[in-house]
Write a structure and sequence with these properties.
Chain A is an alpha/beta fold. The first copy, chain A, is built from five helices and five strands. Chain A has helices spanning about 5-20, 55-70, 85-95, 110-115, 130-145; strands spanning about 30-35, 35-45, 75-80, 100-105, 125. Chain A has a five-stranded mixed sheet with strand order 2-1-3-4-5. In chain A, strand 3 (about 75-80), helix 3 (about 85-95) and strand 4 (about 100-105) form a beta-alpha-beta unit. The interface between A and B is medium-sized, with 33 and 33 residues. Chains A, B: Catalyzes the deamination of adenosine to inosine at the wobble position 34 of tRNA(Arg2). Chains A, B: This is tRNA-specific adenosine deaminase. Chains A, B: Homodimer.
Chain lengths: ~150, ~150
Amino acid sequence: MDLLTDEFFMNEAMKMAKIAFEEDEIPVGAVIVCRNRIIAKAYNQTEKLTDATAHAEMLAITSAANTLGSKYLNECKLYVTLEPCVMCAGASYWSQLGEIHYAASDPTRGFSRLAERVVHPKTKIKVGLMADEAKMLMDDFFKKLRK
Amino acid sequence: MDLLTDEFFMNEAMKMAKIAFEEDEIPVGAVIVCRNRIIAKAYNQTEKLTDATAHAEMLAITSAANTLGSKYLNECKLYVTLEPCVMCAGASYWSQLGEIHYAASDPTRGFSRLAERVVHPKTKIKVGLMADEAKMLMDDFFKKLRK
């Protein structure tokens, strides 16, 4: 796999999702890329942190802002394995994220069905890269949970 | 002012908003009440923390969950001086907040215009307590900013 492609970055997000899976968290992973460098990586930690707001994207956005020393992330791209919910899409609005790439769609809580206008008008949205793998990981997680 | 009334708790949120004002943050304050006890207080700190996600409500929800040792806040009430944005409304969904009381409406970024279905179906919403005072504080802030 070549470096610095969308596939590479989404695969890094997928690695984060797999860590979440191993830690019995809903397996969502995210990375934020600025000028072709990963500046933040995170995975869903709502259980570990006992915090319903600790989605992968929220943690990644806070971490990226911290790294850059700027609350605006206009030049950054978020790669995330599941379609962001409205909370995370709202966070992307406030941070003015340049691009969001998400893998699997979330038909129940994804922002696009509930509130498409939530994201910043300048934020580009790209959908579907590694979607099958991301969806499979989610399905496996909920199968494991039901056991 | 009597203790343990909605007015009392909203006034506590207003005190938080005034601290934000003094610290040159957009003046929004929030408290979370559980069984008539304030378990979290926060004010907007997006500038201080260099984090676009550091809204008063987000900080209060994280803090309340931490205090209770539970990511669910079903028995809690959020008092906030400004209508939550979709990010914060989304956070209230995930934490299943019992009630949200907000003072001033936010016609531009308030959740009710953008995505009313964002909040949890069980969350009760109450609007308008101390709205004039909250709005005046916001107006004063933006006047100060423009100077």
